[in-house]
C-alpha cells in the first residue's frame, strides 16, 4: 500500500472533496519526458566528478579510548566505540551542523562528532539545475502534513509535501540555494520578543562572517558594505546568457508596471522591491556551494572532526536534567551510545529536532505520557509554533516559442545559465502598501516550452495534482510558462509537530493549521490577484500571455476574479515554499533561551531552523547558516575561547 494511502482525514463541511480528477491524455504523453531528463542527467554527470566527501568513522568494539588520540593514527578511519566521549555530539550533519562543525573544530582541543542519518550527497545535488530530482528520492525524508479537511485540495492526496534533506549537508544539499536574508525588521522582532542579542545589527555581522560575495557588480556598488568577502559561503548571481537576461529584464519591467520598485541588491535590508536572484554557487564552476561543500569539505582532515553516516540518533541521554550523550542506531542495526563531555547539540531540523526531544522525554507531558516516555522535562512548547512561508502558484504563459525549450534544456548542461528563477521580491498588499504584516514574496521561475523540469517541479516538488499540472503542462507544450510562487511572509496561523508513535524511525505528525487565522488567507489571496495582474502588463499583452487557470472544482462556481474566488484559489492551491520554522522556539517562555540552551536542562542546545521564533522574510537556509555562525561564537565565548 502506498504510504500516502494511510492519510486523508475528514473533509470539512464547507470544503468539497475532489481528490484526484481525470488524467489528461496530454499528461500520459508527457511522462515520457522523464527520459529526456535521464539523458540530460547522464550528459551533465560526465562533466562532474563527485567530491571526496569525509569518510564515516569506523565503528568497532574498542574499549573507551580517546578519539583524539585515535584520530592521529587513523585519519578517516578512526574508531567510534560505544561509550566513546566527544566534547560535542551534534545530531545531524545538515545546513546548521556543517557551519557548527567548521567553527567548533577550529578549537584544536575540542573533539566534535556529527551523527547523520543520511549518506553522501549524490551528483544530482552538485548540479544546481537538477535539484528537483532529489525530492522524493532516498535523500529526502519526504514528510507530509496531515490533511486538515479545508486546504490544499489541489495537491496530490491533499497533503503538503515537506521535502527535507537526509544526507551530509541536509536540506542545504537539495534546496534551491537562493541567497536572501530578508528585511531587518524580522530580526529586530526576535530581540523585541526577549531574545537578547538577536537583532539585525548582530545578525548582519554573522551573515557577513559566513559570506563570500563574488558578484562584481555588488562589490563595486554602494551596497558592498552589507556583504562579506572572507566567509565560506560563495554567493553570486548567475552569469546569464542573452535569453535569460532578456527574460529577467522583462519580468522586472512587468513588476515595475505593477507599481513596484526595482532593487539592484536584494540583500540590503529594504523591505519592498523586486530584483534578480543571488545563489550559493561555486565561483568558477556552476556547482552547488551548499554548507556541506563550503564548510565541511575543506575541514574534512581536521583531526578533531568525527562523522558517523547512516546513523540515526534515537534518544538524547540524560542524567537527571543534564544531557550526557546520545543513543544511536547504526545502519547495521546495532545500537551504541556516545557521551558528550561538554554538550549535545540538537540540529536535526524543524521536524526531527522536536520529535527527538519528545522521544527523549522533553516535551508536552500529555504527549510523553500517551507514548509511555519517561518525562525528563515537561515543556508544552516543544513542537508548537510551527509556521511556514505558504505559497500558491500563479502560472502565466509567456511567448509562443517552441525553440525556447532547447534553451531551457540546454541550461542544465550549460550551467552558466542556471538557475531558472528569474526574479524575486517583496510587495505588500492591502490599503496600506507598507503594511509589514501583509508582506508577500514572489519568486518567478521561467520554463521554456515543453520543459521536463516544469513537469518535475509541478508534480514532484510542489506536489500539485494531475488536474493542475495537466493544465500547466498543456499550456507549456508550445509556450513558455512563468511559474510564480506567491508566498505569505508573516503568517499569524500556527501549527504543530508532535509524535505519531514512540518509534524513532516513524515520521513525526505534522499539523499545519495553515489558515487558522482568516487574515492569512485574505493576504495570500490578494497577493495571488496582484501577481495574476502581470498579464495586464505590456510584455504579456504583446505576447498574448494568459493566466493558466487550473480547473478547481472547489472554486469554479465562484465569480472568476472576485475576492471570494481568489480566497478559494489561495486556500486550495496552498503549499510550502520549504521554509518551515519555529518548533523549538527561542523565547523566554519557549524551548531555548537566547544562547540556544534548552530552558530547564543543562549541557544541551538546539541550533537549526526550529529555533526561529518568527520567520523573517529571507530564505531559511541563508538564515540558518547565520544562526549557526552566531551559535558557534556564543559557545566559544562561554568556554572563554576568543
Ligand atoms: C526544496 C527546498 C528548497 C529550498 N530552497 C531554499 C533556498 O533557495 N534558499 C534558502 O536559503 N533556503 C532554502 N530552503 C530552506 C533551507 O534549505 C532549510 O531551511 C535549511 O537547510 C534547514 O537547515 P537545518 O539545519 O535546520 O536542517 P537540515 O539542513 O534539514 O539538517 C538536518 C539534518 O539532520 C539530519 N537528521 C535528522 N534527524 C536525525 C537523527 N535523528 N539522527 C541523525 N541525523 C538526523 C538530517 O538527515 C539532516 O541532514 C529550501 C528547502 C527545501 C527543502
UniProtKB/TrEMBL annotation:
InterPro entries: FAD/NAD-bd_sf, GMC_OxRdtase, GMC_OxRdtase_N, GMC_OxRtase_C. The keyword Flavoprotein applies. PROSITE patterns: GMC_OXRED_1. FAD binds at residue 313. GO terms for molecular function: flavin adenine dinucleotide binding; oxidoreductase activity, acting on CH-OH group of donors. Its cofactor is FAD. The keyword Nuclease does not apply. Keywords: FAD, Flavoprotein. Residues 165-188 form the Glucose-methanol-choline oxidoreductase N-terminal domain. Signal peptide: none annotated. Belongs to the GMC oxidoreductase family. This is Glucose dehydrogenase. It comes from Eumeta variegata (Bagworm moth). The gene is Gld.
Amino acid at each position: 500500500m502506498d504510504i500516502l494511502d494511510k492519510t486523508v482525514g475528514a473533509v470539512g463541511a464547507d470544503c468539497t472533496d475532489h481528490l484526484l480528477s481525470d488524467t489528461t491524455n496530454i499528461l500520459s504523453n508527457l511522462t515520457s519526458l522523464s527520459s529526456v531528463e535521464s539523458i540530460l542527467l547522464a550528459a551533465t554527470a560526465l562533466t562532474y566528478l563527485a567530491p571526496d566527501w569525509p569518510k564515516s568513522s569506523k565503528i568497532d568494539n574498542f574499549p573507551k579510548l580517546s578519539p583524539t588520540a585515535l584520530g592521529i593514527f587513523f585519519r578517516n578511519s578512526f574508531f567510534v566505540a560505544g561509550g566513546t566521549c566527544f566534547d560535542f555530539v551534534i545530531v545531524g550533519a545538515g545546513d546548521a551542523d556543517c557551519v557548527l562543525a567548521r567553527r567548533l573544530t577550529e578549537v584544536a582541543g575540542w573533539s566534535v562528532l556529527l551523527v547523520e542519518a543520511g549518506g553522501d550527497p549524490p551528483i544530482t545535488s552538485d548540479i544546481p539545475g537538477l535539484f528537483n530530482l532529489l525530492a522524493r528520492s532516498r535523500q529526502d525524508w519526504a514528510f507530509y502534513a496531515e490533511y486538515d479537511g479545508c486546504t490544499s485540495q489541489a495537491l496530490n492526496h491533499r497533503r503538503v509535501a515537506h521535502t527535507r534533506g537526509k544526507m551530509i549537508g541536509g536540506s542545504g544539499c537539495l534546496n534551491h540555494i537562493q541567497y536572501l536574508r530578508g528585511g531587518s525588521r524580522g530580526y529586530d522582532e526576535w530581540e523585541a520578543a526577549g531574545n537578547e542579542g538577536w537583532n539585525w545589527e548582530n545578525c548582519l555581522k554573522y551573515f557577513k562572517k559566513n559570506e563570500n560575495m563574488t558578484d562584481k557588480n555588488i562589490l563595486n556598488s554602494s551596497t558592498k558594505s552589507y556583504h562579506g568577502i572572507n566567509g565560506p559561503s560563495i554567493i553570486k548571481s548567475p552569469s546569464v546568457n542573452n535569453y535569460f537576461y532578456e527574460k529577467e529584464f522583462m519580468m522586472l519591467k512587468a513588476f515595475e508596471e505593477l507599481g513596484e520598485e526595482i532593487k539592484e541588491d536584494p540583500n540590503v535590508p529594504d523591505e519592498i522591491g523586486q530584483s534578480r536572484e543571488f545563489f550559493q554557487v561555486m565561483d568558477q564552476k556552476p556547482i552547488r556551494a551548499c554548507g556541506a561543500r563550503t564548510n565541511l569539505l575543506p575541514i574534512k582532515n581536521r583531526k578533531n572532526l568525527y562523522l558517523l553516516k547512516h546513523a540515526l540518533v534515537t534518544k538524547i541521554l540524560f542524567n537527571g536534567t543534564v544531557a550526557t550523550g546520545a543513543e544511536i542506531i547504526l545502519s547495521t542495526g546495532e545500537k551504541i551510545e556516545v557521551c558528550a563531555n561538554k554538550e549535545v547539540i540538537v540540529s536535526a531540523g524543524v521536524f526531527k529536532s522536536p520529535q527527538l526531544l519528545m522521544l527523549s522525554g522533553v516535551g508536552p507531558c500529555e504527549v510523553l505520557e500517551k507514548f509511555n516516555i519517561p518525562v525528563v522535562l515537561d515543556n508544552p512548547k516543544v513542537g508548537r509554533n510551527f509556521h511556514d512561508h505558504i505559497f500558491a502558484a500563479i502560472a502565466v504563459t509567456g511567448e509562443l516559442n517552441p525553440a525556447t525549450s532547447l534553451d531551457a534544456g540546454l541550461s542544465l548542461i550549460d550551467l552558466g545559465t542556471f538557475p531558472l528563477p528569474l526574479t524575486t521580491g517583496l510587495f505588500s498588499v492591502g490599503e496600506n502598501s507598507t503594511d509589514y504584516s501583509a508582506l508577500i514574496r514572489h519568486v518567478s521561475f521561467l520554463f521554456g516550452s515543453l520543459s521536463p523540469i516544469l513537469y518535475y517541479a509541478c508534480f514532484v516538488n510542489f506536489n500539485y495534482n494531475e488536474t493542475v499540472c495537466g493544465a500547466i503542462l498543456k499550456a507549456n507544450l508550445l509556450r513558455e510558462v512563468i511559474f510564480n510562487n506567491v508566498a505569505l511572509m508573516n503568517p499569524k496561523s500556527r501549527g504543530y509537530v508532535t509524535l505519531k508513535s514512540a518509534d524513532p524511525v516513524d515520521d513525526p505528525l505534522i499539523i499545519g493549521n495553515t489558515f487558522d487565522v482568516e487574515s492569512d488567507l485574505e493576504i495570500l489571496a490578494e497577493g495571488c490577484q496582484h501577481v495574476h495582474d502581470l498579464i495586464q502588463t505590456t510584455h504579456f499583452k504583446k505576447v498574448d500571455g494568459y493566466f493558466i487557470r487550473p480547473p478547481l472544482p472547489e472554486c469554479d462556481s465562484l465569480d472568476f476574479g472576485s475576492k471570494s474566488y481568489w480566497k478559494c484559489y489561495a486556500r486550495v492551491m496552498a503549499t510550502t515554499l520549504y521554509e518551515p520554522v519555529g518548533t523549538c522556539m527561542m523565547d523566554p517562555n519557549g524551548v531555548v533561551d537566547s544562547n540556544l540552551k534548552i530552558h530547564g536542562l543543562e549541557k544541551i542546545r538546539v541550533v537549526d531552523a526550529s529555533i526561529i521564533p518568527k520567520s523573517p522574510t529571507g530564505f531559511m537556509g541563508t538564515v540558518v547558516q547565520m544562526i549557526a555562525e552566531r551559535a558557534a561564537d556564543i559557545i566559544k565565548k562561554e568556554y572563554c575561547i576568543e
